[in-house]
Amino acid sequence: MAGGGVVKHILLARFKEDVTQERLDELIRGYAALVAAVPSMKAFHWGTDVSIENLHQGFTHVFESTFESTEGIKEYIEHPAHVEFANVFLPVLDKVIVIDYKPTSVN
User: Which residues constitute the signal peptide according to the record (predicted)?
Assistant: First the structure.
């Protein structure tokens, strides 16, 4: 199957300045809860920028989700739990980048 194999879904977020830490914590818990709600979502990790290079362009948070396939990401995007979450998450973002990729080793 063309879309088979693990796929990582990376979201880089720059939140609007008026988003409080409490609201951020609530949103991150909501994002993490999608693992239990969406069968194709196998794992979720997140973190904040700790780079000393200052190349983040204002993006402060990274959210990484793991899926079983590209079809799994499509199921996730269309899943009612994700749609509901996106409707509260996206409006608090000043800027966002999303990249999906298949991890590849150098042989």
Answer: none
